[in-house]
Write a structure and sequence with these properties.
The structure is a homotetramer. Chain A is α/β, with parallel strands linked by helices. Chain A is built from 10 helices and 13 strands.
């Protein structure tokens, strides 16, 4: 059994990692850290895990981490970069679910995250953990930067179109909508039930930190600098991301449905739905699937892509488990083969 | 007091008309019709109106309608067109909240609504009831076609930009999100709480009936045929529409904030919010306001407009009352001067 | 016009007071205080009030308060008791929406609120502001203790039965359910949307501060010490309280429906619904109504009372306005005559 | 592998059975019937099952049913009783999730379900499928009547107290709250999102069909006729039941916490929480757990029991799988060992 550690397990991403790891057939949870709750039983904080996990939260700095085969960082940004170097040197594998190792350009990282990067030397070896793009590299990686939730939904929608060169990379608009759990397990007024319920709004229109992350991936796919307008919105629901992506078509006659089905036919977690479909977020709730549909507007010559994921699963912890499976040579779907919870 | 009739008052639009009319200082409800509930007290169907309204529902065909000064049609599409001609001839004023008189082109109407128009001859005299565009015509009209909810949110977002000619009319994308009440008060599986709650999806991507209605208004504003991609989505909330509208800027240096503030400075129900704002739907819940914010993405040269309304108020019944006020020479805000309900 | 001050207006109760006061025909808002937001425009914190209110928040200690005719305290518990004495001496009328003056027994207050009462000498003159019980006293009062939300719903359900002596006062169980806004406008993890949504739970079963408040009123009505089991629960909705109250019937043959209708027939805000009704919280949302239904279970000889209010309106700010109206000799319904918002 | 059939699989209970069966280690889905959707792929109706199930819906009367080892009826009431006799004769095992075989008294069934029972002769052999009461009988049964959702939550709360004789069986009040999925997957106006959301109400106070079912079980436990007041309520959430059960304590000094822990210490799905706990429904969402807490109110000598289940899992399909496991001698937890989905 793979011995796994989870650093910062009191957030929703950490909780989702625990939910998945307690039933993983080839991994076991060795240590779970939390500064705030150190010493308390995990099941006291998360009563849904009563009977599933007997551990207490440890301090972040615990030497128990070094006994692990792999450590997941589910910490706020700018935390993992301080602890990862020592663990890598100790021979562990690391999957960082925060943004610390996602951008390959340390300057760009500094600009968006407001501080100097503390482990710039590791950016080269960090692999961006989107299996649908980098499966081989992930298999050999020691340090995987797990993608953000919005980037996962948006990039997966665009891979086939950009690889095939059928859209104008200067025309991309990603109108993305996320459930509130994307904002984290925090005591914040704007996420209070009474503020977020029966309400809908855009946020961070002038610039969201996922913008450079998405652009980095799209630039590589397009082999040039793309132009992306990215507007995130908050939906009064707990889980789910729906990205509606627009781009101008360069070719009129292409069979887009076939293009998408072909590109993803061997992907275990990508479901290209039948023509005319409208995927909904609950069809992926609690699962690691991304469901996609492609529509074209003939009059306006616009490609409209609909992409749904569960932000905590394929958008975070599920994808991290998928990456772990690849890194350890397991069946890529191990521990991830349950259907979504619906209704 | 103006004697008002409401035809088809068992839907959410009808209920919202009743909520507004019972407290209107210069109007009184004379007759309320419903085929399904005829004979029953209105307050039995809508317990929230106990103590507010003593009427029973009448048959649709009641002669009581002819005693009214104005009749509101809150009926399904293709109903009003059969009854309106006789009422107009009897000298009444009509505000139709359905789609029957919104499109000036009967052929286009037929194509989208799947039947021949029964009162084609009235399309010329029907005025599209968006006061911010057609206030003078509304004042003189006998027949007002009350705009759809999505069109209200999208058109109000675009009026200043199109009038000023600062955007490319071939580049417009309207990504719109609506609360479930927009689907009407109906027993339909897909609107069951368990289907709609904790869920988000796009719908009608291949073509929504509000598309030609929006285009008709935008074509006039742009003085040419615009190209519009319109994608509606369902939000798990009761009330509210949020339209996120994208267009390519033709001019870089324009002061968009001033342009919007100037265009709308005398409008009682349009609130251009300060630069950088993100209007949320609950800030207009139950009120007749439309709140707007304009953002520009420098890199992509894209104008991003955020527009929120309550779909049942400014998007339907509130705007209908506003039109009634204009048609009868009342203060345009009469009966509409209450703040939104928040939280 | 009555000049009103609102102390602590950044909570939901304060916001609801502002919503009601901006449209009150005989009152005007003179000063609004908040320690945290002092100096900022009220409409910046509550965008729904843009165009409705031009004031900025003042410091709590402002001398502007003394220019008022009446001051509402919408502060956390144990705040008003420090400021009220000086304002009373200055000749103002006070309505305290917190719990400071609700219990007549200072010892009891100390036990439940964990500190010594700072204005014990005022408890005698404070009137418990439930108009349906104390209308005459309220009319003459300078200091009104506005009832808690749960007590309002529970006491109104029981008044007719206890006054008529038809139930065993040792057998009362109040199973109460509240929307999340009852917990206040605070950054607290357990009220985060993701914690409270799609969830239901009881809380404070060992003892809730509203228990002694309810008992105090019931004891007076029963003319003896009642026995009450009170269990509050949290409902994933914003507004509304539903109290389900159980008691053993002492008399079998009484016409309970008539008893309730007779007791409340002149009450402007109490709606005794027809036999067999199940009032729902949305039928009072945003309004000052309490709707009641009485059922009896023949087999078990149990009276089952269903009582719904909007916790922010009849359960807080609306009842406070009703009390103000009574204190100033206005029509008791002034500023409170709008229908609930539904759907 | 056990070959399972599901009759009436288009409801929420049926869907939940499919979700559980597709991953059951020792069972496989052989046939899925639906009159309305016959011929259509299951995954077309439930997109969340794309990739999980390849079957199409069959007619109800299909001979495929006879090839099964076990058939689950997830049909409306009064359906199974017509089909079960033939299947039993063919040697199959049956678990009926409807109410057809829950009441042992055919007269009582007739009174509550408004028709004559069509298979009265089977009532004797039908076992009420609450494993915590009837595990041995279930193991030998051919026909199991799977308990209703409310009865499961209420009976599990009361078993230890009634078995120990510590409460007055004439004093039981069950105030129960259910998510909307309990009302089924139906197109009904009162379950429309806009009717059910942001709302709370009691229903069926004069008499709910689960009342005689609960009483039947409680009578047996108490060895006398109990008196039960049962009031169900609707919570604006999809899944979950919270029963708050009140009863008068006959003995003051009993250690209730120990009593409950002892009674349930070997039960795999019953979690007696620590003293003072308030179980919430999301701690069991999607899982087969029932979590319980017992409180006592000293003043009123009342026992307050809090009991939560997922109405679709332990309250329906999960308990059915548990019963199947027992009937076939499998590990009772097979296919049910996943944690709840939270948040």
């Amino acid at each position: 059994m793979i011995k796994a550690g989870v650093v910062g397990a009191t957030g929703y991403t950490g909780l989702e990692l625990l939910r998945l790891l307690v039933k993983h057939p080839q991994a076991t949870i060795h240590v779970v850290t939390s500064r705030a709750e150190s010493g308390k039983p995990v099941a006291d904080i998360f009563p849904g895990l009563r009977g599933e996990i007997d551990l207490c939260f440890s301090e972040h700095e615990t030497s128990l981490l070094k006994d692990c085969d792999i450590v997941f960082f589910a910490t706020p940004n700018a935390t993992a970069m301080h602890q990862v170097p020592a663990l890598l040197q100790a021979g562990l594998k690391i999957i960082d679910l925060s943004a610390d190792f996602r951008l390959q350009d340390a300057q760009l990282w500094s600009r968006w995250y407001g501080q100097t990067h503390a482990a710039e030397e590791l950016l080269d070896q960090a692999v961006y953990g989107l299996p649908e793009l980098h499966r081989e590299k992930i298999a050999k990686a020691s340090l995987v930067a797990n993608p953000g939730c919005y980037p996962t939904a948006v990039i997966l929608a665009l891979i086939p179109a950009l690889e095939a060169g059928i859209i104008d990379p200067q025309s991309i608009i990603a109108d993305a909508k996320s459930g509130i759990s994307g904002a984290g397990r925090k005591a914040e007024l704007h996420n209070n039930f009474c503020e977020a319920s029966e309400n809908f709004k855009a946020y961070a229109v002038p610039g969201h930190r996922h913008l450079p992350e998405i652009c980095q991936a799209l630039n590589t796919l397009a082999k040039k600098t793309v132009s992306l307008t990215f507007v995130p919105h908050l939906v009064p629901m707990v889980r789910g991301i729906h990205a509606t992506v627009y781009a101008q078509l360069l070719q009129k006659k292409i069979d887009i449905q076939s293009l998408y089905e072909k590109r993803y036919k061997d992907e275990p977690f990508i479901d290209v739905m039948p023509m005319g479909s409208h995927p909904d977020t609950r069809s992926v709730r609690g699962s690691n699937y991304c469901r996609l549909a492609a529509h074209t507007s003939r009059e306006s010559n616009t490609l409209v892509l609909l992409s749904v994921i569960d932000n905590l699963t394929k958008g975070a912890a599920g994808q991290a488990i998928q990456n772990m499976n690849i890194m350890f040579g397991l069946d890529e779907t191990a521990g991830l083969t349950f259907p979504p919870l619906s209704p």
